[in-house]
Amino acid sequence: MTGVISAEASFPIAKLRVRRPGIVMSRPDGVDPLRRWIAWGAMLTGSVVPMMFGHPTGHGPPYSVPATQALVLAVAAIVASRSRRLSPLIGFLFTVAILRLGWSVIAPMLGEWGPVQSFVAEISWGPKIFMSRLLNVASALLMLTTFIGRNFSTDDLFLRVGQLDAPAQPEAILWFRKPIPWTRFGPQLLVIFGLGLTAFLFVNLRPNLGELSRLRQLLPWALATAALNAANEEFQFRCVPLAHLRNVLPVREALWLTAIFFGSAHYFGQPSGPIGIIMATIAGWIWAKSMVETRGAGWAFGIHMVQDVVIFYFLALSMKN
To answer: How many distinct structural domains can be found in the chain?
Structure first.
């Protein structure tokens, strides 16, 4: 059985729905068009796009834009709960609302809280960066509420290592035309992503190479921060959204939707800007693809963590946090 077949079997597309006899409310690909438009609209509504035109960093005050985005999505979820046709979208709508509220309002506000600021003022740069990533766990905890009343298993959420040697299926944008094992594809990605990310950060952050002696000292914090951030982002941007989209969109479309959402979130992060969006979108798509094909988050977490170690060290050498 190929990876595509097993992936589709465990990530079914939306069923055909009939409004009244003789009228099929779905497209030939089996997707309800209204659900599709709402899913993509929710992704755009909850993205950082509205903040690109009036917010210097994407985090911290003013909180009005992300708070409004989250409110609109929460209201949409409540409205969807009243419709049998739209009810499969409830979890995804709340997930996107929590993502925007958690990352752009709750975490920054916690960071500005007096006790947290007093604590951070007394620690060095390494643990300070770890602490900043720890605050984002708040939205992961809130996201657990989207599972209430839903029979999700750890398999549905890809919360296991998965079959690491599963076949990676060829795609138009990839360089192979026959399936190859992820044990071959994954290491290739580590090299390609590592070189690309290093080149981008070197040009944009202009690290002080005279500080290279600090890298060994910072290794424990680099590993801890990278592991925490990778696990946090994989859970919030891929595991949970993909689980909620399983009865809404075909698997390939769901991969790209979550990838674009993840990529746009990097406009204010690292890699940043328009090029950063493209890089993060491709990476997000690859990691989501690995989850579906291996039925686990092993490769996604591993490659993501290595990337975050590289980012941590470049930030350390440039002293930007």
So the answer is: 1
